[in-house]
Amino acid sequence: DVKTKIATMVSAGNLEDLPDIFCLQDTSFQNMVQNYTEAFHDLTDSSIDFSQFLDFKVEASVYDGKNYGIPFDTGTCIYAVRTDYLEAAGYTVEDITDVTWDEFIEVGKDVVETTGYPMLTQASTEPQILGVMMQSAGQSVFQEDGSVKIADNELLMQCIDIYNEMVDTGVMQVINSNDELVTGLTQGTIGGVLSGCWILASVQLADDQSGKWAVTNIPSLPGVEGATNYSNLGGSSWAISSNCRNPELAEEFFASTFGGSVELYETVFPSTGLIAPYIPAAESGIYDTEQEFFGGQKVYQDIADYAQLVPTVPYGQYTAEFNTAMGVALTNIASGADVSDELQIAQDSVDFAMAGNGDT
């Protein structure tokens, strides 16, 4: 685990053991760069042109006004859906495109009644969908000053209400792990999935479902100013370590490859499905290919277009701790606990981690 190894090396004062370069998930980047800044090489004045990357991806690795990461891949959110299940209930993918969560739930209830299958699932231990919802409206529990606002957060409460309504109506099924999600997808017992675009690799595991899937954007929060149908979940960024033997050469490498070569993405994309945060790649037409599995839809071009509309929000250092705390809160709320009380407990839990008791 890269995080653990870097933390161990820095804590032991063994910076000379750091690799020249490494890759971190965006949700971990802030925690690592803020707690172990001495492990990172400052890229602010490097030859890498950060204006050529999507803003929300660049911000994920900025700390104290300085650039420490090179955007690699995105986790642009999509909703992938079984079109045959929609059609059985009298709908098409257009009926769940550019809609609010209220509208999505109404369609979902009909699909569940007709097919018996949920429209999406969510792991009980890490309800990441809450952060996805909030980012789609340009907000986060993590504030610009580094603090976290969970208790008395009206938007978060609205997201929880939507979450609970989907569970209560059967539109969303709570599962124990993502292994259950993959099993449900391959066996056809789940009608759709809302996640980062990387989930499409799992969606396409069942060859017999080819032509029965489509991809669209995610629902927006109703009645919220600035709400959009776009968000992000996951993605990663490269970093150059402070121990790099030739940091200038490493900078030139990234500037001429991930930060400067459309040809690289043209080579990498066909075998990986990588959606790059490098804007010229999205504008080059490399994603403009019909995908048979998705009924001829130009899925990856659509995702590249979605990526340019994702709101930028602070990720904060403690995304994992927030997700874990909210998993506990939602379980307790489902058992009858008071929402406000559970959000205060979650607030206290994350505050405890931020006080220095939960690093990495």
UniProtKB/TrEMBL annotation:
Q: This protein is called what?
A: Extracellular solute-binding protein
Q: Which Gene3D superfamilies match?
A: Periplasmic binding protein-like II
Under PANTHER family, the record lists: ARABINOSE-BINDING PROTEIN-RELATED, SUGAR BINDING SECRETED PROTEIN
Q: What is a single Pfam family found in this protein's UniProt entry?
A: SBP_bac_8
Q: Which InterPro entries match?
A: Bact_solute-bd_prot1, SBP
Domain of life according to the entry: Bacteria
